Amino acid sequence: MGPTCVAHTGRVLAIESVDSDGDGDLHVIAAGGSVTAPGITVFDVSKVLRPAEDPRPGDRVTGAGPVFRGSFRQRQVEVRTFRVAAP
């Protein structure tokens, strides 16, 4: 059985614009959902899907994709689609 896929929309709490492993990903921590922790979902946005401008706290984001473990063993959505809307 493959990874679980989810879709989530929430407000940006914080971002990690420069990823420690240097692969160009953007990590977005959003309120709502419960993928990573109760009430929190982390989106892992690949360099290819990264928006021209990074989202800011308060922006609404939507992402969907499979759930995988991150470098700190946290559950996160490795997005296949990602959209940002300013508040």
What is the terminal separation in angstroms? Answer: 38 Å
Q: What's the pLDDT, averaged over the residues?
A: 91
**CATH architecture name:** Beta Barrel
Any idea what the CATH superfamily is called? Nucleic acid-binding proteins
Task: State the shape.
Answer: globular
Major β-sheet profile: 5 strands, mixed, barrel
CATH topology: OB fold (Dihydrolipoamide Acetyltransferase, E2P)
Q: Rg to the nearest angstrom? A: 12 Å
Q: Reading side by side through the largest sheet, how are the strands ordered?
A: 1-2-3-5-4
Q: How many beta-strand segments?
A: 6
Residue runs with pLDDT of under 50 for 5 or more positions: none
What's the CATH first level?
Answer: Mainly Beta
Structural class assignment: mainly beta
Which range does the strand content fall in? over 45%
The run of helices and strands is: EEEEEE
Number of domains: 1
Total DSSP helices = 0
The percent range for helix content is under 10%
